[in-house]
Amino acid sequence: MSNPRFPHSGRYEFGGRVLSAAQILDLVAPYLTPERQERIRAATEKRTCNVVPVLENIYDRGNISAVLRSAEAMGFQCAHVIEISEKFKSANRVTQGADKWLDVERWKSTRECTRELKRRGYQILATHLDANARPIGEMDFSKPTAIVFGNEKDGISPEMIEEADQTIIIPMHGFVQSFNISVAAAISLYHAYSARPAHGDLTDEEKIILRAEFSLRSSKNPERLIEEIVQRAEA
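The structure corresponding to this sequence follows.
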């Protein structure tokens, strides 16, 4: 794959045999209900990897899970979690299984994450109230964009401020100065969704690969299923 922001190669190895995404679809789709197949197709049509939420050292696991749920609901396929102090475990009560459908990358340091995001071509916008911050409405979300949300107590780290291309704010008109992290993320992601000229922007090849991924994730034991199908076909 030539797109550095798309997370899958489209090659699958089962029992020493390499299969393409198209082959996976041919094998697995008949075992899914027509309703599930249509749900996968419809979700894939609206997916993008060109806007990603980045969560830096969030303390409350419920907040991370809530952000992932919002991201998945709006068609964002990828997310990044920087785990400086504690490893994230999803809270199923909050995610409602959203993390099953996302590609979540985890990082042990801020700079490790931001350098890779820049290598993949993302501009980095970090939510932070400072003198240089600009309203989110002034940002160009037609560019590949990573939106960073800091932890509940201190916000983003000094390292993230240095690495970010721009700090941004959500304009507020009351007495409080900040939203809860999950609320801020939901507002920011919806703004990015609304501001983009075309949200679902995967190529045809990427759509096939993601449909194959979702089909495998819909199976309880995809490895065993594929091996059984291949063995029967070769018998």
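Residues 87 and 106 are 9 Å apart (CA to CA).
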